[in-house]
Amino acid sequence: FDPARFGLIEAPKIDGRLAFVTSSRGGWEGTPPRYSGLHLRGRRVVLEYQVDSRRVLDSPWLEIQEGMSVFARSIELSPSARETRLVLANDDGNGMTSTLVSGSVVVDRGTNVTAMRVLGKGARLNEANGQWSVGFPAHDGPVLAKILSWTGDRAELSNFQKWADRVAEPESLSPGLEPGPARWLPELITAGQRALDTDFLAV
To answer: Taking the C-alpha atoms of 175, 177, 178 and 184 in order, what is their torsion angle to the nearest 10 degrees?
Structure first.
């Protein structure tokens, strides 16, 4: 973080190892998402945005399980009259290969692999022209999904698969929209005072 002008001149830089990046085109097919806001409850953050006319609740998290760091992304999609797709991985043009192994998309990165698993009865994996996506068919009620993403040594892939098999089905994110406990206690109280009227401008 560059403190010059409170970080407005130089954008913050990533600290640590870069796990993965997404396309600048955005993951949702169709109209670019329109951000509505975020909800904070405890340590969890729920992002709210619109994809076309559908509300999406999206909560990212990092789970440390059995020595593995797994990115988890919980999604709740409002009713939709048509299918909605979320892109997970694209062919990077450098000969990237991906296959479906025991319900997970496995992207070959040499000695390492990236594995992605999608949980949820209303979500399904699709592959077309080197692109993997999650499809949400038309639905009358909310659809819940959880996307797990892990990158590591190929020899540890079976450990991720076994753990992913035990992960519980996704839960609704709607309760996270309710206000949580107060974060600032005691209550902050401020008071203003008009400056002396000694010049042409008083604040």
So the answer is: 130
Two tokens, residue 14: 């990533």
φ/ψ of residue 98, rounded to 5: -140, 145
Predicted TM-score (pTM) above 0.85:
no
Backbone angles phi, psi at 117, to 5 degrees: -130, 140
d(CA 4, CA 166) in angstroms, rounded, equals 47
45 φ, ψ (degrees, to nearest 5): -115, 130
Position of tokens 């979320």? 86
Contact 113, 152 (CB under 8 A): yes
Tell me the mean pLDDT per 10 residues along the chain, length 203.
75 73 71 90 90 92 88 94 86 67 83 89 83 90 94 91 92 88 76 72 57
